[in-house]
Amino acid sequence: MKILFLSIEYPPETGGGGIGSYVASIAPALASRGHEVHVLSCASGQAYRDYLEEGVHIHRRVTLQIPGLGLLSRALRLSRAVGRFQNGLSTFLEYRRLGIDFDVIEHPDWSAEGWFFALLHNRPLVAHLHTPLPVILKHNQLPVTFDARIASTLEHFSVKRSDVITSPSRLLVKTLNDIGWLKGKDVEIIPYPIDCSRWENIPPPSKAPPIVLFIGRLEQLKAPEFLAQAITIIRKEIPEAKAMFVGMSKGKRHGTPYVEWIRKFVRDDHGCQFVGYVPRTELSRFFSECRVLAIPSWHDNFPMVALESMAAGRAVVATQNTGVAELLEITQAGKIIPAGDPNALADALRPFLIDPNYAVKIGERARNTAFKMLDPVKLADKRIKAYQKAIEAFHARLHIQASCFHHALPEQVASFEIPKTWRNWAVSESIKTPWKHFYLTTSRQFLELLAKEKSYEKRAELRGISILDIGCTPAISALLASLGANVTMLDIDPSELYKGKQHAVLLGLTENTRYVCADAFKIPFRAATFDIVWNSGFLEHFENPKQILQQMGRVLRPGGVLTVLVPNRWTPHSLWIRNRLRARPSGYGWDKMGRERSYTQDQLIRLLRDAGFQVIASSTSNIRRSILDDSVVLRHLNYLTIRGLLFRLMNAIDWIENYIPFFKNFGFMVGAIAIAPLRNKK
After folding, report:
1. What is the pLDDT of residue 680?
2. CA neighbours within 13 Å on the CB side: how many for 134?
3. DSSP 468-494
4. C-alpha of 575 from chain center
5. Strands 56-61, 49-53: pairing kind
6. How far is 199 from 308, CA to CA, in rounded Å?
7. Residues contacting residue 257 through CB under 8 Å, at least 6 positions apart
8. How far, in Å, CA of 484 to CA of 465, rounded?
9. Quick count: other Cβ atoms within 10 Å of Cβ 535?
10. When you count CB atoms within 10 A of the terminal residue's CB, does the N or C end of the chain come out lower?
11. So what's the pLDDT on residue 677?
12. Sign of the four-CA dihedral 348, 350, 352, 358
């Protein structure tokens, strides 16, 4: 599976928060399970680079700078909203430049990195809840401004439109349901993982002095002042006890920077040590110097620092308003206290500071919990199940929006009944990669032409019929095999034959399909071997197609049928687009087989007659491909249009082709059916 994480935060350059720590833990675990994992980090100030780390492909990019947008955001006081707008747009544009067809994309709620992906919704999306803006504003007692409402709307939109939502804790789900943010949506609970091997060399807490560790931002949400108060209470009984605060100060309290406000608030400089910001790579040193970790937050989803503490053999004392409290309650790997109560916090911390052996006992319980319940590999498997669920939901929704492309290929064409297995597969392929919609329209045109020949007019299947596909159109040959025919695919390019083998294995058609790598000018079969010989998108690449047609006629049985499909002369592709593509340095890709030509119906009929065939009928089809050219228009719409709207447009074009016959004249493909020349009857 190809998995993309969108994450501004990723250590070490931009890994200062829990989101970065989570991605840095789960991404390598997924890679170790054999998946191709990428992380796309768009952040201002970091160097542009791509590298491989622990099996994970890291792509670091800068945030898109739109001229005048910063000035506008300051003038209108929309810094949060504009920041999220830039984050989502930058991430999407850089994702497009990667040019990788990902199976699933995971994005965080915070900062709305996935809003543009959610708008277009052209890939399966998994939204992972960390802590959305409304929760942060509430517990930091910040005003809900117009700017905050827009920013929150972008975050909410990116989550709401995702195929699967996951959260590390039930606490956050309940919190968001209480404010109407989730509106009862199903949420998968998958805890954060922790790689315990990175923390196994830390000495036991009995070797550390009576120090309580706090790691996180110094802000109102994290409530570090309650730990400062608690340590003041404890120091009356244990004078050597201290609290160590690791993290940057954020915001102000009563007009004073938060760290300075705490110092004034507690008036005990000796009991509190403020270290400032420390990279996560250096946190092990601070765990070595403490006996217990305190998390006095008003709200904390599922703090990664708690998991790191447990892996380091340190117990955790946390408020009941933290997601990790759910884990502590089950495992007794620490203590749970009410939020905003420094006396309760002091009572919970005191045993760890008085008795080093007690700290060791609970610390070992915490470490065992991390090993057993937070193993990255086990949790990676849970995430894979969530990704598979997202992929299934994505395709189920698109099947509905695409109406299964029933106008492109109905369940029955003439008397032929389209096998459900093949049709469902072809529709799924078209939904995933819209240019493959031609599987459906080409199949329909081929079968409609085949039904013009009397011996196939009333047939519902092709059992017992031998068919040779020259130039190998694997998907259509798979349909013919599904109808019971014995199909041989011939191509000089082994990669095309390999596609045919893949389709056959997937659809259970290996018994009646075979593959021959050979030159169409020297078909390696005896005369009069096949009932039907055909090709699509092949003859137009050769200056002497008559020789190929004569070879095709040679291997046809008496009365056998030949069908040919080539590009129509009267389409934008043939008149203009193809020449424009040829003018590019990279040229026109399909010319690699030989310079592509186009035909009118009359020109194709004349070509077949010159080769000695008796033409029965001809047709044009697939105006979708004429209007939404695969090489230019559809290629861009696939990424820049809401997928549901694109499918509605494609269905509308197919409807026009079915019910307004005149437009068929401008279909992308010209086709004709003919019977073998008389000399094959001798």
Report:
1. 43
2. 17
3. EEET--HHHHHHHHHTT-EEEEEES-H
4. 37
5. antiparallel
6. 8
7. 249
8. 8
9. 24
10. C
11. 64
12. negative
